[in-house]
Design a protein that fits this description.
heterodimer; A: 116 residues; mainly beta; four-stranded antiparallel beta sheet; 11 strands; B: mainly beta; six-stranded mixed beta sheet
Chain lengths: 116, 111
């Protein structure tokens, strides 16, 4: 399977705990995105990497959120001191740069976070 | 501030008929639009795209129409099949690297 892989699929945590999610993009894709989706809403942009450089971050990404992409391969998204409002589906997507107009995002199956 | 809007949360269509899903946007800088399909417990999958230099793009049973003056796009599925039942999201991008998604339309194709 050469699709985007996310781990874990589900995470239940208590408020105040730290959580970390992992995303493995399609191997030849140099762009990686994190999105968040809540019930009844579309995916909301969180952050974007081109290779290992984090080029853009949404205002939605508070100081409790940090994302990394060491060596331009897999990426991790960490949420510190989780709050109940962080409960959502966290989606990772990757794409190959080749002109913005032709860019297509390939999404993973997401990590469903529940903060109790 | 919802820059991409899908005002119909749900749509039901008989198998074999046409499904028309609508999407409106507010940002005149958007020049690239995509449609994604999402099944439960899966991530969205790419369906079809269109750039602002075109007003129509077709791929098999799926056609996307773009009306730039009205800031409106639509996805036509003909003929609709039960396997098309899913949530459909439209997305748009402009000069930045973000893709802005609508809230989705849940399509049910009735056999």
């Amino acid at each position: 399977d050469t699709g985007v892989s996310q781990d874990p699929r589900h995470k239940i945590t208590k408020r105040g705990q730290n959580v970390t999610f992992r995303c493995d993009p399609i191997s030849e894709h140099n762009r990686l995105y994190w999105y968040r989706q809540t019930l009844g809403q579309g995916p909301e942009f969180l952050t974007y990497f081109q290779n290992e450089a984090q080029l853009e971050k949404s205002r939605l990404l508070s100081d409790r959120f940090s994302a990394e992409r060491p060596k331009g391969s897999f990426s991790t998204l960490e949420i510190q001191r989780t709050e109940q409002g962080d409960s959502a589906m966290y989606l990772c997507a990757s794409s190959r740069s080749g002109g913005r107009i032709n860019e297509k995002l390939f999404f993973g199956s997401g990590t469903q976070l529940s903060v109790l | 501030d919802q820059q991409v809007k899908q005002n119909s949360p749900s749509l039901s269509v008989q198998e074999g008929r046409i499904s028309i899903l609508n999407c409106d946007y507010t940002n005149s800088m958007f020049d690239y639009f995509l449609w994604y399909k999402k099944y439960p417990a899966e991530g969205p999958t790419f369906l079809i795209s269109i750039s602002s230099i075109k007003d129509k793009n077709e791929d098999g049973r799926f056609t996307v129409f773009l009306n730039k003056s009205a800031k409106h796009l639509s996805l036509h599925i003909v003929p609709s099949q039960p396997g098309d039942s899913a949530v459909y999201f439209c997305a748009a991008s402009g000069s930045g690297n973000q893709f802005y998604f609508g809230t989705g339309t849940s399509l049910t194709v009735i056999p």
